[in-house]
Amino acid sequence: MFSTLDIGGQNLARHTGLTSANDLPRITVDRSISGVDLKLKLQLYKVRLLLLTRNVKLAKREVKHAMNIARGRDSSMALFLKAQLEYARGNHRKAIKLLMASSNRTDAAMSSIFNNNLGCIYYQLGKYHTSAVFFSKALSNCSSLQKEKPLKLLTFSQDKSLLITYNCGLQYLACGKPLLAAHCFQKASLVFYRRPLMWLRLAECCLMAVEKGIVKGSWAPSDRSEVRVSVIGKGRWRRLLIENGISRNRHVDSVERDVWALGGDGQPKLSLPLARQCLYNALHLLNCSELCNSKCIVPSDSSLEENESSDGASSKNSNYKNLPCNDSKASTMPAALINLNGDLKEPKGGTNQEGIQNSISYYEDICRRENQMIKQALLANLAYVELELENPLKALSAAQALLELPDCSRIYVFLGHVYVAEALCLLNKPKEAAEHLSIYLSGESNIKLPFGLEDCEQWRVKKHLDCEEANVGAAAAKNSSPEGLEDFMFLKPEEARGTLYANLAAVSAIQGDLERAHHFVTQALSLVPNSSEATMTAIYVDLVLGKSQEAVSKLKHCSHVRFLPSNQQFNKSS
């Protein structure tokens, strides 16, 4: 989410090459400014910088100073920044009160900031439809700004419609509307095309659209899990034909020549190949960023000594909880600058310049860790997409790269092993696949939980990379609601355990160890009784063991089975 900070901060990014020699005299002539007003402007910029670098503690002190300077003047922007501070600390109700206290809401530019920020807050509170209303109002304000006559140069810097459009995309994605979300992200790509997270979001739109079955040539989850049973033949030749959703809908659309083909509305057609291309774009941008950072990092004098002793200090875990600082160290920070709550502390006796430099170093360290977290999601999604497109070698490469990431989350380690095992099975290497799944075995036949509830909670609470782009602090994540992509939430630990049992059963069956496969699949069905994949594996094992009655019984009790009339034809793929 992009709020006041990003909108106001964009004005700072003016290229020096565009500066006119007449700019300073023009400012002097057109608008004189008093010393107090200049002091207020500089103080507000300082607050913005501190919030951008997530130094919430120091920003709190500086915003108080700004409010004192603004006393008796228009304090709208100071109030907006104070609201941003409370938003960063997770005090959403207080942030709303501060926004409502602003008096300057008649100006179109200020109104767009006001409505957008309210939209961000309500989004964090999980009230997506309310946030959509405010985002719509913010876009209307931007539209009014563009229509003002005569058109001023300042209008271009005040128009933040593309940033707000990105927020709309997140809101639509949270509400399960991938087509509308993709439309917004494509518009916003004019600004965010160099941001890996934008490409990840666009890939998520593709995956959600495919999962919901709203893309031509895709299937809905119900179709995928459905098992169709038909009776053919008569008398002693009477047989049951069983067709599951995966084999029925097996399609390879990776051969499309133009992944970015536009539909009739001028928007890209959401598909798995498009998702793959978006994921590769994001990975390329991340790799370029890492390469650039490794070449450009020049430690400051104040932190050089610390860097030599604690170079490369990393977070204790790459989960999103307490993301700004999971441990009490940071590779480019002087000792004792970060307290146990993850807040940055200004060193006693330090100058303002040192404090700002420390904040920037702290922020750069956060960004490096966040990039690693984004990479986890990218590689996991890429492995999944390649498997769906029947590219096991590429899926294997992506999943192995995921497992090689330092401090990888336990959830993504689980996904990595599952995807590696599936790819190896497709490559006819069941023994190697079993080795990846067996790391979760405790003893001969018991599987331990691949991750715990605390891991799920950490990802639910801190799945806010977009909001972190808006520079909210550590405290904001502790109290904020989930991002809202419930459809994409992880399995529960017990469900993941059941998935491992089902996968081990399938691998054991491939290897011919039917007794072990029967044990594993029985455990799987006790944990995930509605899994069509586990049911199909159990039916296969029963049939191979000669237990046809048990297999038919499982078919009858499976909620995903649909018995077809005997005269209905099967697809050729069966």
Task: Give an overview of the whole structure.
With 574 residues, the chain is mostly helical. It has a domain at 4-192: Serine Threonine Protein Phosphatase 5, Tetratricopeptide repeat. The protein has 27 helices and five strands. It has helices at 4-9, 23-30, 35-52, 56-69, 76-88, 92-100, 108-124, 128-147, 153-158, 161-174, 178-192, 196-212, 221-225, 245-248, 272-296, 301-309, 352-388, 392-403, 410-426, 430-437, 453-461, 465-469, 474-479, 493-510, 514-527, 532-544, 548-557, and strands spanning 227-232, 239-244, 441-442, 446-447, 561-564. It has a three-stranded mixed beta sheet with strand order 2-1-5. Strands 3-4 form a two-stranded antiparallel ribbon. α12 packs antiparallel against α15 (272-296). It is elongated and about 100 Å long. The model is unreliable at 7-30, 248-257, 298-342, 467-488 and 570-574 (pLDDT under 50).
Question: Mind sketching the topology for me?
Answer:
Blueprint: H1 4-9, H2 23-30, H3 35-52, H4 56-69, H5 76-88, H6 92-100, H7 108-124, H8 128-147, H9 153-158, H10 161-174, H11 178-192, H12 196-212, H13 221-225, E1 227-232, E2 239-244, H14 245-248, H15 272-296, H16 301-309, H17 352-388, H18 392-403, H19 410-426, H20 430-437, E3 441-442, E4 446-447, H21 453-461, H22 465-469, H23 474-479, H24 493-510, H25 514-527, H26 532-544, H27 548-557, E5 561-564
Parallel strand pairs: 1-5
Antiparallel strand pairs: 1-2, 3-4
Helix pairs in contact: 3-4, 3-5, 4-5, 5-6, 5-7, 6-7, 7-8, 8-10, 10-11, 11-12, 12-15, 12-17, 15-17, 17-18, 17-19, 18-19, 19-20, 19-24, 20-24, 24-25, 24-26, 25-26, 26-27
